[in-house]
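Entry 0007
Protein: SagB/ThcOx family dehydrogenase
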Amino acid sequence: MMTVGLTMVFSTLQTTEVRTPAEEREEKSVQLPAPRKDGGRSIEEVLAARRSVREYADGLLTLQELSQLLWAAQGVTDDPTGFRTAPSAGALYPLEVYVAAGEVADLPAGVYRYLPAEHRLDRVAEGDRRRDLSGAALNQSAVGDAAAVIAIAGVYERTTGKYGERGIRYVHMEAGHAAQNIYLQAASLGLGTVSIGAFHDDDVGRVLGMNEDEHPLYLMPVGKTIRER
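Output (structure tokens):
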């Protein structure tokens, strides 16, 4: 019996695969499709079409659509400089963007952090967190019903370190730029979104797994518009 037991333990040790930190990170990482940078509707058309949409039709977002929305919010537009789609005071880029995905094709439900330089997602937590996020946002149905919710957070110290207290204003201005970009990109794609600022900061941070120095500023649920059904 002892021989059999030792053989089983040895066999288990032999077959247990030890993954490196890089391999574990790769497992949690999702490379997004390249964003489209030409074609589509004119800026005048999407400005005229922009609306705050709080009710959504059933249907999955595509990974390409999510990719386009995230790129619009904080995507890199010039690799040598790292400049992004939204202007930033001193090019300090204090914003962090999260996604609570529930109904996105080819993307498991979960919470993800957007990494602009690599245009990919890193999974922060598994499972559908939209209802929890809705609870943190005073039970607003748009948050729970959307296919995905984009959250914009600010790290004030990145900007106040250079500009002092005035930097807080600059972070808020930048968050507004990013949110408007999401609005316009959603309109271009025929999707609906709305900017939400009514929520409990600590609860949103907990649901999304934000770091202590990250302060949630916007929630932007995104989904198919009712008229597309």
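Curator remark: The first strand starts at residue 29 and ends at 31. Confidence is low (pLDDT under 50) at residues 6-16.
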